[in-house]
Amino acid sequence: MADPLGRALRASVDRVTTGIVITDPDGVPQHSNRFMEEMLRLHRELRVLDDQVQLADPKEHQQLRWLMRKCAEHGEPQHMSSRSKSTGELLFIAVEPLPWEKEGGPWACLLLIRSPAATGTLDPVRLAMLFGLSQRESELVAALADGRGLDEFADETERSIHTVRTQLKSIYRKTGTQRQSDLVRLILTSTGFLHRPID
Fold first, then answer.
1. Rounded to 5°, angle at Cα 113 from 107 and 117
2. Three-state SS for 118?
3. Sheet holding 107-114, edge to edge
């Protein structure tokens, strides 16, 4: 893709915090984004070898190959997870069909690989834009999405717990949520985690 749209699409895909690999119907990688390249460097269990995306565990690798074949032959989306033997970290893998030469198959595969540990960080500025939050409110939301509690955040930022609770009530009103669990779910499914800053 040498045209301007192709360059823009590649640049956009490179900013997504999900590993992306496009394979041909035989499972041979044709393109991967930069996040996938980082995942390959960081995860010993995940690799590209002999022109195939591979998982180190033989049983999981067989499952991935089977899912990719099923996707390529029938155009059916598939999903699996893989747990690192060394770190215990999970990888979530979706195999989605893409039309290759013509509609109806054979299908190329779009592999989407996510690691909960590699989601990136929430940018408080982005949260403020998404939900109309103040800077302090968006800092609190980012802390809650990162697993910190109200007391911990109050201590870290040298704010009173009363101030933090008042900010949380304002956040609930602005986001249409009523509980911390709903707020965190909303934030984690928003576009706040999708892209990384431009290098």
1. 175
2. helix
3. 29-32, 19-23, 107-114, 90-99, 78-83
Write down the pTM of the prediction.
0.70
DSSP code of residue 116: G
> How many other CB atoms are found less than 10 A from the CB of residue 119?
15
* Contacting residues for 92 by C-beta, under 8 A, at least 6 apart: 79, 81, 113, 114, 115, 116
- Bridge partners for 96 per DSSP: 110
Domains plus CATH for the chain? Answer: 4-118 (3.30.450.20), 124-193 (1.10.10.10)
Q: What does the pLDDT look like over 178-189, one tens digit per residue?
A: 999 999 989 888
Q: Please say whether the beta carbons of 38 and 117 come within 8 A.
A: no
Q: Kindly report the CA angle at 151 between 136 and 153, in degrees rounded to 5?
A: 35
- Cα 27 from Cα 73, distance rounded (Å): 11
pLDDT in tens, 22-46: 988 888 898 889 888 888 887 778 8
Whether residue 167 contacts residue 180, with contact meaning beta carbons closer than 8 Å, is answered with no
| Torsion from C-alpha of 53, 194, 196, 140, nearest 10 degrees | -130
Instruction: Tell me what pLDDT residue 198 has.
Output: 46
- Which residues on neighbouring strands pair with residue 31, listed in sequence order? 22
Q: What residue spans of 49-160 are helical by DSSP H?
A: 58-74, 124-131, 135-145, 150-157
